[in-house]
From TrEMBL:
Segments crossing the lipid bilayer: none
Subunit structure and binding partners: Homodimer.
EC number of the protein: 3.2.1.131
Organism: Pseudoxanthomonas putridarboris
Keyword hit for Cytoplasm: no
Residue span(s) of domain Glycosyl hydrolase family 67 C-terminal: 465-688
Chemical reaction(s) catalysed: Hydrolysis of (1->2)-alpha-D-(4-O-methyl)glucuronosyl links in the main chain of hardwood xylans
Domain called Glycosyl hydrolase family 67 catalytic: residue spans: 139-463
Alpha glucuronidase N-terminal domain location: 17-135
Pfam families in alphabetical order: Glyco_hydro_67C, Glyco_hydro_67M, Glyco_hydro_67N
Family: Belongs to the glycosyl hydrolase 67 family.
Protein name per Swiss-Prot or TrEMBL: Xylan alpha-1,2-glucuronidase
């Protein structure tokens, strides 16, 4: 009976994420048990307690026997975790932890008083907690615990989730249910999920979270909500996570009773200083503000004829005495439509390079338009050598099929981080801009570094809306820790931790994940096309979208299809956006013969019979790629079907069902896009290509007033 009950509560609904801690296979367990017989871990501080509890829980679950708790090493196989200050054993070992900083750790096989032991040592408690998660990961991924000698330290300082959560529980661009923050019941009810959220983030090294939407509500800064935020900060603190808030630029008017929010107005500056003081009285380790200003209708300094630097610096000055940071977004839209939306952020920000305070980070999306399935790297990377730039990735799949499409974002992140800006010769990668190393000599001394991910987390049991979307949260965290890590290696460890170490499962699933993003590019926006989704909700294809308030919110603005060809000419003969890149890159992107084919229509307007690398004319190549994307999804379905016996029925069934939805929608994207573009190309479908299932009028008539996640 007890056994049955235990089984019933172990439902495989995805709630445990990659921290399932289910027994590892017998052979490994036997070998590993001898390396985890005893746990020597202090619990004098909340962070120490968190590390100790995680190890006890994890080792007990994975190995089937909980290690004995001890104050010192009494037998072979002890695991010792802590810092020189928290652990006498570690103090005696005299380990070299100089390069580890506050958050790094080392894991090493050592001998203590004649006993074999594994030590997880750090300079600060939080490093020891990160090391504890790493040690568990070794077990979870089936690695040996013999002769360990590992050292890790994060390459980026602020590794932050951005929640686009509104106070009413709606998550903008969220596809995993309502917000996990139950503002109404806070501060009193501290849902246990908050602790699990913190554990999951700490397991990846995420150390900050912005709780509210960038399209923000000034009420978040009122005393009532600050008290609620403080309660969350209390829950997160033992896991090394600081809270941040999106600050509405016009808050001094809306909740402060002032008549202006002009950043140079002394009363406004005073108001923000007082507000910062009040926040830090409530939350002593508050992280700072994230700001979306003068973008998509949000208020900002330009409303008063001031610059982004004026606005950011005012907030920076208010936070500086408390050690807070301003993350000022570069995702801007001026009131006037620019000649090319892709150029706008660069045009507005580069002139202010070097004018931002030391505690400001400019937060830049990976590409210049908007989290599209594929974009070339943002031209701001490398172009502001005196300003720390923070990466902003989107984890939630607003433009990538919402929750049901299996699209692993690791390859997208890796591609963006590995992109070579060439500003200081070959090897000037975006990763090196983000970690501060490329411009170490010109950046402010007091600089910080950061990476943000727009969260895909909601109140769904599985947190992310689908099992495979958990991998996107996971890979974001791992890449924020080390922007040079490999998407494939991370997929491999995630699959092992989340599903199984069975080689016959891991191999095909990793393979399937690795190609999934390219497949989405193929069935949605091949060859450099972009911004072709349905209006407003962004669900499904909408290449025909035109008219409305601004041209740069339409699809026709971006694809520019006509009888003579397709694509946005951003070369010297067009908007010349290429000139915002370093000359070597500009030359390549600007030359229709040399541009990487995946960006062809991003940078060039070419005729329908343009010869592509495959030898096919452009129209045929376009159709070929649309079909290839759909075929990949069919292949994923087949692969997954074949793995039925290797995974629990519950998760297998949901993934299988979602892949079915993905196939239908991929087909829809292909068919609708082909039906539409054919009206311009006027060309027949290449031989063997199936015609769209419906007429163009049919696709254009589809309406989705209740698609999830819409902005409001
Ligand atoms: C766009 C989203 C919109 C966000 C905006 C942003 O559609 O909901 O508010 O980005 O990043 O992609 O501010």
């Amino acid at each position: 009976m007890l056994g049955l009950l235990a089984f019933a509560v172990q439902a495989e609904d995805g709630h445990d994420l990659w921290m399932r801690y289910v027994p590892i296979d017998a052979a490994n367990a036997a070998a590993s048990r001898s390396h985890a017989t005893e746990l020597v871990a202090a619990d004098a501080t909340p962070v120490q307690s968190a590390a100790r509890a995680e190890l006890a829980r994890g080792l007990g679950g994975l190995l089937g026997v909980a290690p004995a708790m001890s104050d010192t090493v009494t037998r072979d196989g002890a695991v010792v975790v802590g810092t020189r200050a928290s652990s006498r054993v570690i103090a005696r070992l005299r380990l070299d932890t100089r390069q580890l900083g506050a958050e790094g750790y080392l894991i090493r096989s050592v001998r203590v008083d004649g006993h074999a032991a594994t030590v997880i040592a750090a300079n600060e408690d939080i490093g020891a907690l990160y090391g504890a998660f790493h040690f568990l990961r070794l077990l979870q991924t089936g690695q040996s615990l013999e002769n360990l000698d590992l050292r890790e330290a994060p390459r980026v300082k602020l590794r932050v989730l951005n929640h686009w959560d509104n106070l009413d529980g709606h998550v903008e661009r969220g596809y995993a249910g309502a917000s996990i923050w139950d503002w109404h019941k806070l501060p009193d009810w501290r849902d246990p999920r908050y602790t699990d959220y913190a554990r999951a983030n700490a397991s990846l090294g995420i150390n900050g979270t912005v709780l509210n939407n960038v399209n923000s509500n000034a009420l978040s800064l009122t005393p009532m909500y600050l008290e609620k935020t403080a309660a969350l900060a209390d829950v997160f603190r033992p896991y090394g996570i600081r809270v941040y808030l999106s600050a509405r630029f016009s808050a001094p008017i809306e909740i402060g009773g002032l008549e202006t929010a002009d950043p140079l107005d002394p009363a406004v500056r005073r108001w923000w200083k007082d507000k910062a003081d009040e926040i830090y009285r409530t939350i002593p380790d508050f992280g700072g503000f994230l700001v979306k200003a003068n973008s998509e209708g949000q208020p900002g300094p330009q409303d008063y004829g001031r610059t982004h630097a004026d606005g950011a610096n005012m907030l920076a000055d208010a936070l500086a005495p408390h050690g807070g940071t301003v993350m000022w977004r570069a995702f801007v839209y001026s009131h006037e439509e620019p000649d090319d939306r892709a150029k706008q952020a660069y045009t507005e920000f580069v002139p202010h390079d070097g004018r931002f305070r030391g505690n400001v980070l400019v937060q830049v999306k990976n590409g210049a338009i908007d989290f599209q399935p594929r974009e070339p790297f943002h031209p701001l990377f490398g172009a502001m050598p005196k300003t720390p730039l923070m990466m902003e990735f989107q984890i939630t799949k607003e433009y990538l099929g919402f929750a049901t499409h299996l699209v692993y974002l690791g390859p997208l992140y890796e591609e963006a981080l590995k992109a070579d800006t060439r500003v200081r010769g070959p090897g000037s990668t975006v990763a090196k801009v983000i970690d501060g190393s490329l411009h170490g000599d010109t950046l402010p001394k007091s600089r910080t570094t950061g990476m943000a991910g727009v969260a895909n987390i909601g109140a769904d049991r599985n947190w992310s809306g689908s099992h495979f979307d958990q991998a996107n949260w996971y890979v974001f965290g791992r890449m924020a820790w080390n922007p040079e890590s490999s998407a494939r290696a991370i997929a491999d460890e995630w699959v092992r931790m989340t599903f199984s170490n069975d080689a016959a499962f891991v191999g095909p699933v990793v393979e399937m994940m690795m190609g999934s993003r390219e497949a989405a590019v193929d069935y949605m926006t091949p060859l450099g096309l972009h911004h072709l989704m349905g209006r407003g909700h962004h669900y499904g294809p909408g290449p025909w979208v035109e008219g409305g308030p601004r041209a740069d919110w339409t699809s026709v603005y971006y694809h520019r299809a006509s009888r003579d060809g397709i694509g946005f000419d951003r070369s010297a003969t067009g908007s010349n956006a290429v000139a915002q890149y370093a000359p070597a890159v500009a030359d390549e992107f600007g030359d229709v013969e040399r541009v990487p084919e995946e960006f062809l229509l991003w940078f060039h307007h070419v005729p329908w019979d343009h010869r592509t690398a495959s030898g096919r004319p452009l129209w045929d190549e376009l159709v070929h790629r649309y079909t290839r994307g759909v075929d990949y999804v069919k292949k994923m379905r087949g692969t997954w079907q074949g793995l039925e016996s290797r995974v629990d029925a519950e998760r297998h069934a949901q993934v299988a069902s979602f892949l079915g939805i993905q196939e239908k929608e991929a087909q829809w994207w292909r068919d609708a896009s082909i039906a539409y573009f054919q009206t311009f190309s006027g060309r027949p479908l290449p031989e063997g290509e199936a015609p769209p299932a419906h007429s163009l009028e049919y696709y254009e008539s589809l309406q989705f007033p209740y698609a999830p996640g819409d902005g409001k």
